[in-house]
Fold this protein.
Amino acid sequence: MDDQELEEGLERGHFFLDVRLRDALRTLAGAGELSSPPTFPPPGALPRLRFPLPSPAEEAAFADDLSALARFDAQVRLGERIEALERRLAMAERGRGVLAWQWLRRRWGGP
């Protein structure tokens, strides 16, 4: 995605910038901006990270996303099961063809 698509998505509310990881890394580094390469103080030198509880709207959006993923996952699994059944049917049909061919050879004395 290019910058213009990102801007349009942000304006329409389709996207949002999630800065939680960036902010957590800054907290762990004890800095407003991360240096390059970032340096971090030893464990215990800074307070533990605290993450805010999600709002009801965020919870609802998360539940909606999970619901969509669950439906998609179910569709993928169903597709895989159908493909497996088709393979099994094809093998069974080939097996019947061989049996029919053998029966015809015995019946009419073919090669």
